[in-house]
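Long-time lurker, first post. I've been practising inverse folding by hand and with some scripts of my own, and I keep getting stuck on stretches where the structure tokens seem ambiguous. Below is the full token string for one chain I'm working on. Before anyone asks, I'm not after the true native sequence, just a reasonable design that respects the backbone. If someone could post their per-position residues I'd love to compare against what I wrote down in my notebook.
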């Protein structure tokens, strides 16, 4: 007699992502594990008087989505910001900001997000924002979160109006009048604005810093609630595992507090963020975090690094000059030698490394660092990662498979794929480099493991939107290679490959007897849905560790 299940999902089109048993009709769960996956009649044998039965009504059932690159704390904070994606022209911007400000009379700093670099016909200045809101501090960030624009009030109060020394790769753009023009490129340039108004605790994980002074009990509770709201947003979109890409000890403590309260509803991995001004000894903190947090629900063990910025602000590092800015290739945040030292030491400690590398120059330097680690420490199953890889050279493509390095990429990011416009990005890259831009298919065909994610809040957290973007991807011009993925490949990029990226392919990322019961039930059969209509398929139930974490 089979054991009695706590939960059964039946009448389903189950895509297991398990090559041994690719399809099924029903799943039985006991505790936090899958105990049976088969046809409906076989799984019914596991039903007892206390078994909860979910009727999938013919909808697809998949492994819970694994979001392999996101910013949980900052994303949660942005849920309340002014969302400016899709807003263009001065009048539309004015109306959105003034309406938002009227509803928040007590906000110390008004913050907008999701701004297109071409929101106005000419580059945004503080004077444009002053015409809209002169008397209250206002700042708005580009959708990629690498540039902010602030009005005069915010710049003045944060002590930036007359400029300030910032580190390499960062810039406070100055106007002809000798004052800050309003555009702040990269975190050291706009961080002081957020710091001044107490809006920076959610960003400290991008600095590898801890709150100082430590938050009061009230602030701590508010931060835990904010983090929980972010987790709920993820669960609503079918996500069961998160690989966060900014981190500090404080975020781990917040999540541990939620776990004690029974509110940690997604498995979460938090890295230590290493900055270019830190000494190598700081990696001891990363090792301590890895040792202290190493459970199925909350873990560390990763070092996150930024090597460059982004294409749209010319801060990504390129092998050749920018197509629209001769003589300029971007300024790296690390020298090649410094990054190699960091990679060798982090690898020696057994830590996984993930590096933001957007330009082909950055990608090459990071691969060189991983090569140095391999040569110095010997080959191991390190699964080091390169994040984004928006442009790559042909000679670097095969190195991913050769070095065992993961390509962590975002289907929503190519211009024209989802929420990013074609310009100015494709002109920055230049036509000669288009064939190897956002080259998921090229990398996969060369043997690389390609893992998908959203980079939320840079792009919407919704995995199904990203899956649609991957399937619907179109070349920018005739004769360019097709970089799109099949539906199965895109789903695997959000499930099995995500599990591999966190060394958990033996526990999750597929639906299989003995695996963790991380499951998402969808509103329709995703395979029977037209590619252009995939976004209409919605998660209706999310199950993590056998517990329902979201129910539509």
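-- Answer (accepted) --
I ran through it position by position. Result:
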């Amino acid at each position: 007699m089979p054991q009695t299940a706590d939960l059964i999902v039946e009448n389903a089109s189950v895509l297991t992502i398990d090559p041994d048993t690719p399809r099924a009709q029903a799943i039985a769960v006991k505790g936090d594990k899958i105990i049976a996956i088969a046809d409906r009649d076989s799984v019914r044998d596991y039903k007892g008087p206390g078994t909860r039965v979910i009727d999938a009504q013919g909808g697809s059932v998949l492994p819970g989505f694994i979001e392999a690159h996101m910013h949980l704390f900052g994303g949660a904070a942005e849920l309340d910001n002014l969302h400016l994606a899709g807003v263009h022209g001065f009048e539309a911007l004015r109306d959105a900001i003034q309406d938002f400000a009227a509803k928040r009379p007590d906000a110390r700093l008004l913050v907008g997000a999701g701004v297109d670099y071409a929101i106005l016909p000419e580059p945004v200045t503080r004077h444009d924002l002053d015409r809209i809101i002169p008397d209250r501090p206002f700042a708005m960030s580009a959708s990629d979160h690498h540039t902010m624009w602030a009005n005069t009030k915010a710049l003045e109060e944060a002590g930036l109006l007359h400029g300030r020394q910032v580190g390499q790769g960062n810039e406070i753009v100055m106007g002809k009048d000798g004052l800050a023009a309003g555009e702040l490129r990269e975190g050291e340039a706009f961080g002081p604005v957020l710091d001044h108004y107490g809006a920076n605790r959610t960003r400290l994980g991008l600095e590898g810093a801890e709150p100082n002074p430590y938050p009061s009990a009230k602030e701590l509770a508010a931060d835990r609630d904010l983090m929980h709201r972010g987790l709920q947003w993820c669960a609503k979109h079918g996500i069961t595992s998160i690989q966060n890409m900014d981190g500090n000890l404080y975020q781990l403590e917040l999540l541990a507090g939620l776990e004690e309260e029974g509110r940690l509803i997604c498995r979460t991995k938090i890295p230590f963020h290493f900055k270019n001004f830190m000494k190598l000894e700081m990696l001891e903190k990363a090792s301590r975090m890895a040792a202290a947090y190493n459970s199925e629900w909350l873990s560390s063990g990763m070092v996150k690094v930024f090597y460059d910025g982004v294409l749209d602000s010319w801060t990504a590092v390129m092998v050749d000059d920018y197509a629209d800015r001769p003589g300029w290739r971007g300024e790296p945040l690390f020298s090649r030698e410094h990054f190699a030292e960091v990679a060798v030491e982090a690898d020696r400690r057994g830590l996984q490394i993930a590096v933001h590398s957007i330009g082909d120059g950055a990608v090459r330097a990071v691969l060189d660092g991983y090569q140095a680690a391999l040569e110095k420490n010997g080959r191991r199953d390190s699964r080091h990662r390169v994040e984004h890889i928006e442009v790559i050279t042909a000679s670097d493509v095969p190195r991913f498979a050769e070095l065992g390095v993961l390509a962590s990429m975002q289907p929503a990011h190519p211009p024209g794929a989802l929420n990013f416009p074609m310009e100015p990005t494709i002109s920055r890259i230049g036509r000669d480099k288009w064939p190897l831009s956002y080259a998921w298919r090229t990398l996969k065909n060369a043997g690389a493991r390609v893992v998908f994610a959203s980079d939320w809040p840079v792009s919407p957290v919704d995995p199904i939107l990203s899956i649609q973007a991957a399937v619907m991807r179109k070349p920018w011009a005739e004769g360019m290679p097709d970089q799109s993925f099949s539906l199965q490949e895109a789903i695997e990029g959000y499930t099995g490959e995500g599990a591999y990226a966190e060394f958990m392919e033996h526990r999750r990322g597929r639906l299989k007897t003995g695996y963790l019961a991380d499951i998402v039930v969808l509103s329709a059969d995703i395979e029977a849905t037209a590619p252009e209509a995939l976004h209409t398929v919605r998660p209706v139930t999310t199950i993590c560790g056998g517990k329902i974490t979201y129910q539509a």
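A couple of notes from the structure itself: The longest helix spans residues 217-236. The chain has a mean pLDDT of 96. Happy to go over any region you disagree with.
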